[in-house]
Amino acid sequence: MANENKKKVLIVGNSAKEHALALKFASYDNMEKIYVAPGNAAIKDVAELVDIREENVQELLKFVIDNSIDLTIASSSIAIKNDIADVFQANGQLIFAPTAESSKFALNNAFCKKFLYKLHIPTPRFGVFERAQQAMEHLTSASYPVVIKTEEEINGHDRQACSTLNIAKTFVEDLFARDEKKVIIEEYVYGHEFTLYAITDGYQALPIGVAANYKFMSEGDGGFLTDGVGAYAPDYKVSAEVINNIMSNVVQNILRALERQELSYLGIIGVNGILKNDGKYTILEFKPFFQDHDCACMLSLIEENLYTLFEACAVGSFVDDYEEIRTSGASSIACVVSAQTDDKVISGLDLIEDSQINWFNRVQNEYLENLTKKGKLMTVSTYANTLSRAKTKLYDDIEYISFEGRKYRSDIGK
Description:
CATH superfamily of the largest domain: ATP-grasp fold, B domain
Radius of gyration: 21 Å
Strand content: 25-35%
Largest sheet: 9 strands, antiparallel
């Protein structure tokens, strides 16, 4: 009887955002058990790991049925792409995630650009190319810089901002050499990059908040273009007027278009855009959940119980239960710390008190010392009453983290 009202959840994914999500759910009194599939070594501190890969949807379904899971949250793009939502819904299992067909605009960059164009949503000028020769001809007459993307995300190596024709040609040649089917070339738009997050049951959509994005590896937006290396929220540069405009002319516009196709998008929609110098916005792409670099930021500000919120969308009571998503008045900030080499011992983590660490993939040696793994290593995040105070706390804590080859941006929140 003690666990009568307590819930069991399964989170599907294995990166920093799933770690942040598991920590958030672990803070709720109404949780009986949190499972994460497949998860990573850091997540086992707060949840039970399930050794099932994200694409193995039928195995995940069997696990959910066998273990009487109350709600599944698929934050993994791989699981969404493999249509976990449709399979679970067809078998009477509650899931918070969009179907593969309804989320195609958030998973496929080529489809996304054409979708935006069709709906008259402002987006940078672009071309989609299926052959290298066509792309090369386009690059010869393009204005630089340009952004080149693959059709789908590939572990952060799917895009590059190219300042010259030679750099652009080399990247395009590499993409087609590795058998990419479609390459997107779009104009580079100057301005302030942000992601507006909304939650929807497919009919009603409510804004959660806006995160300011940092996508380039080096200070001052230099170095390689990535899928994200830092963020702060709320983004004070994006006004309530802009938020309302995007909710009406972008989010609701998309939901209506999907409804005309008899499709319904259930879950989180991340609208990634640029606020230009003239105050207008342009939309770059969409995300089917919070992103690794900003998930902890956004979650720290949400005052709703996520289980209750996600369940309301899944069971169809969202429109009756929620008129707005309550968030705190605090500011949050996050920074991705990367490693340039493997197997270096990380020290200083035990000295951190104010910040939350979410691992992309934690590796330990036989002495239980944390080791580096080349690439994105962890997201460090914190919050405070003001952005200035949060930023000070963040960078004070990052200074404790020590290892050879440490890399991070020092200008998040400037």
